[in-house]
């Protein structure tokens, strides 16, 4: 019987610790979240373009080498 009480106490302590951690979180404002999302989107698009250009260049180089 003491084992079940111990389990309940552990779960309660664990939930209390999680609640305490959530209270310490500093959530970003809507403006900060929008700005960070825009940066992530811009970097993703830029990297996509860079990868596409590199792919095209490597494809052309491969075609040149194969045609020799």
From TrEMBL:
Protein name: Preprotein translocase subunit SecE
Primary location class: membrane
Keywords noted in UniProt: Membrane, Protein transport, Translocation, Transmembrane, Transmembrane helix, Transport
High-level lineage: Bacteria, Bacillati, Bacillota, Clostridia, Lachnospirales
Gene name of the record: secE
Database matches in Pfam families: SecE (PF00584)
Entry GO CC: membrane
Organism for this UniProt entry: Coprococcus catus
Listed GO biological process terms: intracellular protein transport; protein secretion; protein targeting
InterPro entries: SecE_bac (IPR005807), SecE_sf (IPR038379), Translocase_SecE/Sec61-g (IPR001901)
Localisation per UniProt entry: Membrane
